[in-house]
């Protein structure tokens, strides 16, 4: 069956460190993968999209990698700040419909 | 740009009544809008795809007669939860494609529905 899996356990890190979140998928052949941020009680906010022919993509303190052989994407936040605390969702879009992983909650402590 | 609003932001209703949730694209036209449901500590689950001027396409397991979707204009889609029950209590979120070539979806702020 098709699955998108993210670390279900919350990730707690110290301010200034790099946070790394993992997204694994099975039985998909995505042309691209997206990452979203969701704050409690709010809708998701688009962060980054990476295509299958891109190994890495950066936006400010964010970096995403995409390994179609491992069927995995890594999402990095460098120099993390307490304001980065949120749930981060990866998503694939088979047939144009977004399918989300369950999200990883990140908590950055000052 | 690419702002999506929802109304109401929260609603409490009694079991057996119907509730309508509006989703609007404020600064762009959205041919297609999507409706999701999210239970606490769980991910977003796509309920249906709403196309302007045509019938919505529902995901497997979603009752189309219970969750009525109308996409009457390029800026407005509505979701009506009919004969609501406590198990329908959830966070309902809509989204729209701003630019199909960019694949990004823009989400509304969500509507918290509580059925008592």
Topology:
The complex is a heterodimer of chains A (110) and B (116).
Chain A: E1 3-6, E2 11-14, E3 19-26, E4 32-38, E5 45-51, E6 56-59, E7 62-67, E8 72-77, E9 86-92, E10 99-100, E11 104-109
Parallel strand pairs in A: 2-11
Antiparallel strand pairs in A: 1-3, 3-8, 4-5, 4-9, 6-7, 7-8, 9-10, 9-11
Chain B: E1 4-7, E2 10-13, E3 19-25, E4 32-38, E5 45-51, E6 57-58, E7 67-73, E8 76-81, E9 90-99, E10 104-107, E11 111-115
Parallel strand pairs in B: 2-11
Antiparallel strand pairs in B: 1-3, 3-8, 4-5, 4-9, 5-6, 7-8, 9-10, 9-11
Features:
heterodimer, A: 110 residues, mainly beta, five-stranded antiparallel beta sheet, 55% strand, B: 116 residues, seven-stranded mixed beta sheet, four-stranded antiparallel beta sheet
Into which percent range does the helicity of residues of chain A fall? under 10%
Strand content of chain A: over 45%
Assembly state (oligomeric): heterodimer
Unreliable runs of chain B: none
Structural class of chain A: mainly beta
What is the radius of gyration of chain A? 13 Å
The ordered string of helix (H) and strand (E) elements of chain B is EEEEEEEEEEE
Total strands of chain A: the figure is 11
Task: Report the average pLDDT across residues of chain A.
Answer: 93
Shape of chain B, please? globular
Of all chain pairs, the largest interface belongs to: A-B, 19 and 21 residues
- Structural category of chain B is mainly beta
Distance between the first and last residues' Cα of chain B: 37 Å
Mean pLDDT of chain B: 92
Note the main sheet of chain B.
7 strands, mixed
Helical residue percent band of chain B? under 10%
* Beta fraction of chain B: over 45%
- How would you spell out the order of helices and strands of chain A? EEEEEEEEEEE
Low-pLDDT stretches of chain A are none
Overall, the morphology of chain A is globular
């Amino acid at each position: 069956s098709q699955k998108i899996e993210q670390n279900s356990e919350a990730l707690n890190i110290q301010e200034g460190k790099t946070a790394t979140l993992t997204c694994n998928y099975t039985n998909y052949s995505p042309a691209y993968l997206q990452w979203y941020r969701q704050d409690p009680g709010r809708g998701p906010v688009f962060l980054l999209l990476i295509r299958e022919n891109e190994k890495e993509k950066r936006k400010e303190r964010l970096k995403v990698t995409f390994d179609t052989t491992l069927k995995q994407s890594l999402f990095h936040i460098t120099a993390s700040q307490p304001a980065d605390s949120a749930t981060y969702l990866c998503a694939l879009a088979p047939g144009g419909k977004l399918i989300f992983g369950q999200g990883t909650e990140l908590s950055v402590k000052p | 740009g690419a702002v999506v609003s929802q109304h109401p932001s929260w609603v409490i209703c009694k079991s057996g009544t119907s509730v309508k949730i509006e989703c609007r694209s404020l600064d762009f036209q959205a041919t297609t809008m999507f409706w999701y449901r999210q239970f606490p500590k769980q991910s977003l689950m796509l309920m249906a795809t709403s196309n302007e001027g045509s019938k919505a396409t529902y995901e497997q397991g979603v009752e189309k007669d219970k969750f009525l979707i109308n996409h009457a204009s390029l800026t407005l889609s509505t979701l009506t939860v009919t004969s609501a029950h406590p198990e329908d209590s959830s966070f309902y979120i809509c989204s729209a494609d701003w630019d199909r070539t960019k694949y990004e979806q823009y989400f509304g702020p969500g509507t918290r529905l509580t059925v008592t």
